[in-house]
Amino acid sequence: MGDLPALWSAEAAAAQRAHARHLRRWAAFGSSLAALVAGLLVGCGDHDSGPAPRSAVSAVPTPSPREIVVAAFDRTVKARSLGFAEQVVVHGGGRELAVSASGAADLVHRTVAMTLTRPGAGSIDLRSVGGALYVKSLYLAQQAGVRKPWLVVPVSAPTEIAGSFAGFEPAKVLAQARGLVPADVQETGTAEVRGAAMTRVRAKIGAQRLTGLSMLGQAGLGGAGLTGLRENVPVDLYKDSQGFLRRVLIILRLSGGATASVAADFFAVNEPVSVDAPPAGDVAAGGDFLHGG
């Protein structure tokens, strides 16, 4: 037998070397595992980094119903063109009085073609082009003693017919209705307008604020016609999915049990509109006659 202490020393050294190799293998395995886990985490981060800390999220406030309505008015006024149908109807004493206007407007070039219907005057065709208002009415032509189908006056002239045109001019109606929107507006769901789904928003305003709505004046419901109305008046506003205002509806309860409704529809937004002046040979100056109308 050899020297036992020497053999033990050799065996101990061999054991230590084997243990060291074992530790190195575990260390290498641990490094590989750490690298694998890190890679998986990075890969997951590419797809979903998880919720950001609350402090890093920038909150986007949800627009209020009033902001939605005002934005719809502004978007509609900035449209290139639109069609319109407006009406004021008064019921009372077993009678009905209705004044209406319909047509199309090029909001870029500020031209309007309108058919106006009034009691006692039938239908009147109007065209506003280049600062002139062209009026086509067999009744008015006969009263003026002219044989040409169209009469013309400046659109800003202080005439009854120019005032009627201004009362229903769609850009003005939109601007006036926008001014009616109060601070307290509630979203009330959906409704259908001309076959399309709309968001309906309801507001209530003081009746005296309606004195600035020129459509009412065309039915004799100006400031004096609204005197004594103290209750809040419901106003329904309808917005389409593209953010355009499509309908304004106001219902009034007048004294003596009479009622009045004001409705303005806007449609065919941004569709092509062409409004031209009538041929010069078909136009007669209507200044003196229409000024006296």
Describe it for me?
The chain has 293 residues and is an alpha+beta fold. It has a single domain (65-291), classed as outer membrane lipoprotein receptor (LolB), chain A, CATH 2.50.20.20. It is 31% helix and 34% strand. The protein has helices spanning 4-47, 65-77, 138-144, 160-168, 170-178, 214-217, 287-291; strands at residues 81-92, 95-106, 111-118, 122-129, 132-136, 150-154, 185-193, 196-206, 232-239, 245-253, 259-267, 283-285. Strands 7-8-9-10-11-1-2-3-4-5-6-12 form a twelve-stranded mixed sheet.
Task: Set down the secondary structure blueprint.
Blueprint: H1 4-47, H2 65-77, E1 81-92, E2 95-106, E3 111-118, E4 122-129, E5 132-136, H3 138-144, E6 150-154, H4 160-168, H5 170-178, E7 185-193, E8 196-206, H6 214-217, E9 232-239, E10 245-253, E11 259-267, E12 283-285, H7 287-291
Parallel strand pairs: 6-12
Antiparallel strand pairs: 1-2, 1-11, 2-3, 3-4, 4-5, 5-6, 7-8, 8-9, 9-10, 10-11
Question: In a few lines, what is going on in this structure?
Answer:
With 293 residues, the chain is of the alpha+beta class.
Question: Count the strands?
Answer: 12
So what's the CATH class? Mainly Beta
Cα-to-Cα separation, first versus last residue: 143 Å
Structural class: alpha+beta
Number of domains: 1
Do you know the CATH architecture?
Answer: Clam
Number of helices: 7
What radius of gyration results from the CA coordinates?
A: 38 Å
Low-confidence stretches: 1-8, 22-49
Q: Would you tell me which CATH topology applies?
A: outer membrane lipoprotein receptor (LolB), chain A
Strand neighbour order, sheet with most strands = 7-8-9-10-11-1-2-3-4-5-6-12
Which of globular, elongated, flat, extended, rod-shaped describes the shape? globular
Q: Can you summarize the main beta sheet?
A: 12 strands, mixed
State the assembly state of the protein chains.
Answer: single chain
**What is the average of the pLDDT values?**
78
